[in-house]
Design goal:
Length: 450
């Protein structure tokens, strides 16, 4: 498959996330029909990950954190398939699609925006019993399982079962983990008023963190504030502790604790997409693509012609933070790198000099439940630390601004207004992962003819 037509350059974009969607829309805006663009993603939509904790807490409808690639990128070819190999020597990418022979897509310019995956460890029981928190399906499942567990716990008389059903464990107290736990715990605290048979002290939320602090992204003082907040809310935060195993849903920690947990959420960091190893592009020690500040991928001899990359799967110099610093993996950098990258492809095609990526950190913000949050904002060189309601409001405002498409921004705001008016939806639908179960049971019990 080759889109290069009559001298029109073909840009192949791998990944339709924060980097991929930004590059495709900016390129189309800048060059119109003078460029052919193909976006490959295994999902037909972008997931706005910073809103996943609010999906897990039932504050935002899952569909409102997704932007459909075919609608947002109308006029761009979108391939729904999984990249399995990059052969830059032949300028070819191999893509696995449903029920078909692998596609071989050629290109003139390649953009790699394949993001990251959870950094897992060989812990007994982890693969079988834990769940990640990076995709909308995971956030929906966490919410459904927690709410269903409350309903089941309120209806059982067996003390051990009840204890397990009301124990929720999160591993990793960085941004994603602390935010996800805090939002879900807030939902549970809010929902308990509909459960006269359950008391707050029956519910056990455990956060296991290997380091001596949580939320390092917001700095030491605010991290300590967030820790105190969570502990005041009854969350058991185990610092400098490891989860040694979780076989059959029984969590064993390095401090000697052992308990059955209904849910184990793994949020202990990320690593670059492992599919990068299936390529002839050079990777650095962390498994990422090393980039120049102009976002061209480089090896020891300098830039590799025709390959750009950005986002979580790259190491990009952070010129605004000083010599030797590199950009941290977040959406703030990914979308802005996407813009710079698109402009540098236009410049490459037009034979103009490239421009380096330079972005001054705007700050870091985490919501910790309704009206609760922490964060730092930068106004030039001035740093402002926010706690509680102001931090929560600033985080929500920023993410609505950053969320792609006006339609989805309106959707998110409508969800919040609906929650204010009618309260959160307290329904968990555990069978949504097995929608055929009820029908299968009925069909199986129907007497067979003859
Ligand atoms: C819970 C959570 C909360 C977060 N909160 C914040 C926040 O508050 N602020 C912030 O700045 N950042 C936040 N982040 C981080 C931010 O979302 C990421 O840094 C950002 O999305 C990275 O953009 P990307 O384009 O590199 O990767 P992604 O946006 O992840 O896009 C990668 C794309 O590649 C696709 N893909 C992967 N493998 C393949 C394959 N083999 N074939 C085809 N397609 C593939 C994926 O489907 C995906 O669409 C959060 C992340 C999480 C998980």
């Amino acid at each position: 498959m080759n889109n290069t037509t009559g001298g029109t350059p073909h840009v192949l974009i791998l990944g339709g996330g924060s980097v991929g969607m930004t590059v495709a829309s900016q390129l189309r805006k800048a060059m119109g029909a003078d460029v052919a663009i193909t976006v490959v993603d295994s999902r037909p939509y972008l997931t706005y990950q910073p809103f996943l904790p609010e999906v897990g807490a039932g504050s935002i409808d899952p569909r409102n954190v997704l932007a459909p690639l075919r609608k947002v990128l109308a006029g761009t070819k979108v391939v729904t398939g999984s990249v399995s190999e990059i052969r830059h020597a032949d300028r070819t990418v191999v893509v696995e699609t449903e029920g078909d022979a692998p596609l071989e897509i050629t290109y003139d310019h390649l953009v790699v925006g394949l993001g990251s995956v959870p950094r897992t460890l060989p812990i007994p029981g982890l693969a079988e019993n834990a769940i990640g928190f990076k995709w909308v399906e995971e956030a929906v499942t966490v919410r459904d399982r927690v709410l269903s567990a409350l309903a089941e716990a309120a209806s059982t008389k067996d003390a051990e079962t009840r204890k397990r059903l009301l124990t929720f464990t999160f591993v990793g107290g960085g941004f994603a983990g602390a935010e996800a736990l805090a939002e879900v715990q807030d939902m549970v605290a809010d929902t308990l008023r509909y459960y006269p048979d359950l008391h707050a002290s029956d519910v056990r939320f455990v956060l296991i963190e290997a380091m001596g602090r949580i939320l390092p992204e917001v700095g030491e003082e605010l991290g300590r504030y967030a820790l105190d907040q969570l502990r005041e809310r009854g969350v058991e935060v185990k610092l400098e502790t490891f989860m040694n195993s979780c076989e059959n849903g029984v969590v064993k920690t390095s401090d000697g604790d052992e308990f059955a947990s209904e849910l184990i959420v793994w949020t202990a960091g990320i690593k670059p997409n492992p599919v990068l190893a299936q390529s002839d592009l050079p990777l650095n020690q962390t498994g990422r693509l090393d980039c120049l500040a102009d976002l061209r991928v480089k090896d020891e001899n300098g830039p590799i012609e025709g390959v750009f990359a950005a986002g979580d799967c790259t190491t990009v110099p952070d010129l605004a933070s000083g010599e030797g610093k590199v950009c941290v993996p977040n959406a703030q950098h990914a979308t802005r790198q996407g813009k710079r990258l698109a402009d540098n492809i236009v410049r490459t095609i037009q034979g103009r000099p490239l421009v380096d990526y330079y972005h001054k950190n705007l700050g870091t913000m985490a919501t910790l439940g309704m009206y609760k949050g922490v964060g730092t904002l930068f106004f030039g060189d001035r740093k402002v630390e926010l706690k509680g309601l102001p931090a929560w409001a600033a985080a929500r405002a920023y993410h609505v601004y950053a969320m792609p498409t006006a339609e989805k921004k309106v959707g998110v705001i409508s969800d919040w207004v609906a929650n204010l008016v009618g309260g959160r939806d307290i329904l968990g639908i555990p069978e949504s992962t097995e929608p055929r179960k009820a029908f299968e049971l009925t069909a199986a019990s129907t007497p067979k003819k003859g």
